[in-house]
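User: Please predict structures.

Assistant: First:
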Amino acid sequence: MSGPYTTLQELIDLRSDASSLSLYANQHVRSALSGQHRSRLRGRGIDFDEVRRYQPGDDIRTIDWRVTARSGKPHTKLFREERERPVFILLDQNPTMFFGSELNFKSVTAAQCAAAISWAALKHGDRIGGAVFNGIENRQIKPKRSTRTLLHWLNAVTEINNSLTSKTPPAPISVFNDALMFARSSINSGSAIFLISDCLHINPETDTQLFQLAKSHDVVVIRPIDRLEHEPPAPGRYVIGDGNSQSLLDTRDKDISAEYLRNCQTQQDEIENVLTNYAIPLINIRCGLPVIPQLQRVFAAGKIRKRYV
């Protein structure tokens, strides 16, 4: 529990809990994380590819005896070694993330998700790297299979997170698309990308960027959401603002509360529609609840794959 800010030690302490996360599916299926390539997120090793007629020089240990018996001619199994696929995290820390009404700010929940996924990936033996952006700077750590590199990454996350204040100027409207463009130009094709953001800067241009990104990478979006982004506050009068202006919200008025709920649902629907167009999984993580149990329910149960396969 860290409220508006995280600490490096807190992100390091997630290491043991993150070991229970299963980012990788064992079954050989085409998943939402596989894209047009054989997905690195389905586990490492040798994967069955096809059966063909036996040829002189083939290893007799790979003969498929069932097909051989059925056809009367020797057949052998061919296997394909799965491609190395680094895990890259795009972490949003722009000022809209500096918000929270219970437990943690969205920026903190996002940082915790980034740390948990990083530790889980490294435990699996993957190269892990990332970029944290806030509309002013973009701090990048290149993927390596190294605890030291991961610690450099978490330190960058902590520094950017701790730089946010209520007076931080709003990020440019292009901040989300700029991050996607950066990923396209600087991350090796075939990477697994976790984009962690509230997605409030999605706009019409985002479609093009996501289309291009999803063509050559496996993409998953993790969206930290605050309770007030899916339900109105308790009946009362509230002063709300965006850093530039303020207005009054009176949730004692049932019509205003109903409109508030409609706006929340519309926002969620718009985000889901954009991502669904490219079969990109969306994981909503509540900022009012601990991160690890929520990630466990998603990844350990394989819900991403079942929903989008």
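Second:
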Amino acid sequence: MSTATLPSVRGKLTPAAPLAPLVWFKSGGAAEWLFEPKDVVDLQAFLADLDPAVPVMALGLGSNLIVRDGGVPGVVVRLGKAFAKVSKSADLTLDCGAGASGILVSSTARDSGIAGLEFLRSIPGTVGGFVRMNGGAYGGEVKDILVDCDVVMRDGSMHTLPVEALHYTYRHSELPDGAIVVGARFKGRPGVPEDIQAEMDRISASREASQPLRSKTGGSTFKNPAGHKAWALVDEAGCRGLQLGGAQVSEKHTNFLLNLGEATSADIEALGEEVRRRVKDKSGVELEWEIQRVGKAK
């Protein structure tokens, strides 16, 4: 796919763009094309004019993602600063760009006296990913706070979807195929900024104590099966500290996989599959990946 066959853009379009620096695991191949749109209109125009056969994938902070070593075909869309704004739009409601971080959203909520969004402080990602995955932690989920979201479809059209249209379940939504989230409205409840900050501090301290935050990791690897905690099943299967190539199951939190330095994405994914096998053999429970795995094997 040459530049001549791609629509013109006002943003940045990069061929053979390495994705490893953009994801938390720091592993994986390149995007055939990386598109960083200047604004929503730039994104809409690009998708409207792009050959419908070309695959398109949105990339946020890359915190819950394995990019396979063979890279990602087609176009990877990364939403930058133009999509990272957060403002109070109505009573107890924040208007959030899809590229805004959980820290920015929760801090803006605090400053606006809006409680109930503190849990976003603990999720390493952006609004687009939260909406797509029904992100949650510490007793909160996006389904509890989302009013509606704006999505750009593969044909370039934009639609606003109410929370009911996403049919949220645990770490899953029914966003239409090819939809890229570009914005969302979150609504909380009245709160006192000092109390909100105290809850954010409590969550932050809890994460620091229990999770390997300063490692090359992908966050929670597996979904919690009904009636179980994924980390406990992994631990009971004897996988704490298990290593394969340059990848390891964290000794601090067994639902986290680590890149010890030079792990390939194949190492990381194979380790996850080995953990799933051992858990199934030990407990009969089938772990489901929470981390998204994209691209081609090398």
